[in-house]
Write a structure and sequence with these properties.
Elements lengths: L2 E5 L8 H8 L8 E5 L5 H8 L5 E3 L6 H6 L1 H21 L4 E7 L23 H20 L2 E7 L2 E2 L8 H11 L2 E5 L5 E2 L2 E2 H14 L6 E7 L5 E2 H12 L4 E5 L14 H7 L7 H14 L5
Parallel strand pairs: 1-2, 3-4, 4-5, 5-10, 6-9, 7-12
Antiparallel strand pairs: 8-11
C-alpha cells in the first residue's frame, strides 16, 4: 500500500518550518508521496484522488480558541474543504473514507461519559460547529452516493510531535524553562487525554471498518476512557519532568467546556479499539521525548 499526503503548511497555530520538520522523516519512504496544496483547491483534490482507493481526511484548521476570532475562516476550510474532499471522492468513486471529527462536537450539555448516541447539537465554539457540520456533510454524502464513512471523534490527543500550543506541550515547555504556567478556571476542569499511539491504532481500525459497504456514516469515539483534572495534569508533568511549576490562575476562557469523557462501548465493540497507554505512562513518554530534544545543559 502506498500513501499520498497533502498539506498547505498553514501557520495559524505554529510556523511552517515546524510543519516541514515534522514531515521531513517521511519524505524518503518509498511508499509515500507528498503534495503541497490546499483542500480548498478542488482541482488539485480531483487530481490526487483519481489515484486513490481510500481517503483519510485529517485536514482542518484546529483549535477552539483561534476559531473564536476567525470563525468564517474556520468554516471555509473545515466545512467547504470537507465538501471538496467528499466531492472528489464522489467523482472518482472512492467509497471508503475516514473523517477526523472531534470530541468538541458534544459541547457542554451532554451527559458524561459522552456517547455517540448523544444529539451533539450544542457545540460551544466555531471549531466544534465546523466539525459537527463536517459530520453532517458526510451523512448527506452517504445518503446520496453510498459508501462507508467512519467519523472519528478524537479526545484531546497528545504525545511526541503534538501541536506546541496545546496544554501538555505548552505547560511542559514552560516548566522546563522555569516560566509561569497560566491555568484557567479553578483547576477542576477535566479532559479525556488520548495518547497518539492509541489514536493511530483507532484510525487504522476505522479504515479497515470502511471495507463494510453497508456502514454508511458511523461515528466513533477515540479516547482514553478516563478523565484527568487540570490540577492533576500539572502534577503529573511536574513529576515526569522533575521540576515544579510556577502557576498563575486566570478566569475561564470562552469556548472551553468543563469536562470531556469518552464512552468507548461502540468503538470497542465495532473497531476492536481499546486504549493501552494511560495518562501517567503517556506523560512519562512525552517527557522523555521532550528531554531528548533539549540541548545538553
Amino acid at each position: 500500500m502506498s500513501v499520498i499526503g497533502i498539506d498547505c503548511f498553514d501557520e495559524t497555530l505554529y510556523p511552517a518550518a515546524l510543519h516541514h520538520a515534522q514531515l521531513a522523516p517521511l519524505l524518503s519512504h518509498p511508499r509515500f508521496r507528498f503534495v503541497e496544496g490546499n483542500i480548498l483547491d478542488a482541482a488539485l483534490l480531483g487530481a490526487i484522488t483519481k489515484e486513490a482507493s481510500a481517503m483519510i481526511h485529517l485536514a482542518a484548521l484546529a483549535g477552539v480558541r483561534p476559531s473564536l476570532s476567525q470563525a468564517s475562516r474556520y468554516m471555509r476550510y473545515n466545512v467547504e474543504g470537507t465538501q471538496n474532499i467528499l466531492s472528489a471522492c464522489q467523482q472518482h468513486r472512492i467509497e471508503r473514507i475516514v473523517f477526523a471529527s472531534s470530541s468538541s462536537v458534544y459541547g457542554a450539555h451532554c451527559a458524561v461519559p459522552f456517547s455517540e448516541e448523544d444529539p451533539a447539537v450544542l457545540p460551544a465554539s466555531p471549531y466544534a460547529a465546523s466539525k459537527r457540520a463536517g459530520e453532517l456533510l458526510c451523512a448527506t454524502h452517504c445518503d446520496l452516493y453510498g459508501g462507508s464513512i467512519a467519523a472519528l471523534r478524537f479526545f484531546t490527543v497528545y504525545g511526541p510531535h503534538q501541536r506546541p500550543e496545546m496544554a501538555i506541550a505548552s505547560f511542559a515547555a514552560r516548566i522546563l524553562r522555569g516560566e509561569t504556567v497560566f491555568l484557567h478556571g479553578n483547576g477542576e476542569s477535566a479532559r479525556d487525554y488520548t495518547y497518539i499511539d492509541d489514536i493511530i491504532d483507532g484510525v487504522i481500525a476505522a479504515l479497515h471498518k470502511t471495507s463494510d459497504r453497508t456502514l454508511g456514516l458511523r461515528c466513533y469515539n477515540l479516547g482514553g476512557e478516563k478523565t484527568t483534572t487540570l490540577r492533576e495534569l500539572v502534577s503529573l508533568l511536574e513529576s515526569a519532568l522533575g521540576r515544579s511549576a510556577r502557576i498563575e490562575w486566570r478566569p475561564d476562557q470562552p469556548g472551553d467546556v468543563p469536562i470531556t469523557w469518552s464512552s468507548l462501548d461502540r468503538s470497542r465493540r465495532e473497531l476492536g479499539y481499546s486504549p493501552t497507554v494511560d495518562i501517567r505512562q503517556g506523560i512519562a513518554r512525552y517527557a522523555d521525548w521532550l528531554r531528548s530534544r533539549q540541548p545538553a545543559s
